[in-house]
Amino acid sequence: MNKALADLIRISRDTGSDPTLVQGGGGNTSVKTADGKYMYIKASGTALKDMSSKAGWRRLNIDTARSVVKDKAIAAMPPRKRELKVVDRLLEACDDNIKIEARPSVEAHLHAWLDTAVIHLHPSSAGAFVNAKTGRARLDKLFKNEKTPPLWVPYTDPGYMLAKRIARLVQRYRKDHRAKPQILFLEKHGLFVTAPTADQALRIVRRVIKLCNSKLKHPKKAKPKAVAPRKIEEAKRCIAAAYARALRQKPQTWHYPNAAIDQFMALKNAKKMLTGSLTPDELVYAAGPAVWIEKLDPEPIARKLKAQVKAGKKPSAAFLVKEVGLIAVGTEKMAPTVRDIVLYSIFIRTNAAKMGSIMTLNKRQEDFINNWESEAFRKKLAAGK
Ligand SMILES: [Zn+2]
To answer: Strand order in 291-293's β-sheet?
Structure first.
């Protein structure tokens, strides 16, 4: 295996195995080859931790990937058409012998503008700041001794617009600081780290997480509260009944005992904190924040699920049930991701609330994600997958 690919697998598995750094198929990584011609990047739909020398990545021609951002015809297209075109162009930029239809990460053209190694994560520690009203000012203070200060990226729709904005901000940064940025904080989204080598990028990631964590409140280590099996069954049955009524679905339901969830649910303002979606990933993997349930009545839950689907959204997948804890809806493969997203979300919400207030996606931003995601999905279907 060549060095760039070996580095990519290493940084992906190293960061991807920690659910406080990235959840489900979120995040992405890339490493450029020493000759500057190619870039190995995570494939879309693969989890970082599942990447191997054989699968989960694509090799792209860097110049072709960069040209996507510069293309004026793409810039002039309406959003839906534009995002589909970008997916096509990134597939065209693939220069490897991979026969299966694995798309490169939708943010590949963005990576093309950054340094040799790129690690993009959704850490709950950085999330607490990028989702807090005073987060940016606090990060500036926390990282004031950096040789190259972090670059703040205001919220931008993922995909083409984000790549374009980052390309522009990086250009300006290089003028102002005579250096490339190494740490990028993305408002209501996450963290990008980029460095000349994979090892340096990993070291920066660890340093950023440690520094952010040093200012945050962490749940106490404890055993999860014991819940009677009968109560768990009642809660599962109620949510399954709501799904059956609203969507004619028979979902799989799971209970996850967890001390951090117990502690969050004991907070006075817990219910109030569960409003709005924090990030694109919370929306994609858990259909927004967990639903707070005090009384086991399927009817109001069914009404809520119906209204969500009618509005073009996905039905909620996480429920925080009083005296029971988290009930997640999903397949055996997906449900643990819902749990990881809930843990990430309650950590961010608790801490961001302490820093002024929690910032969430607005309606337009949410609509874009819901649309964008379904388009990408349809595209995948059309490709015969
Ligand atoms: Zn992301």
So the answer is: 253-256, 325-329, 318-321, 291-293
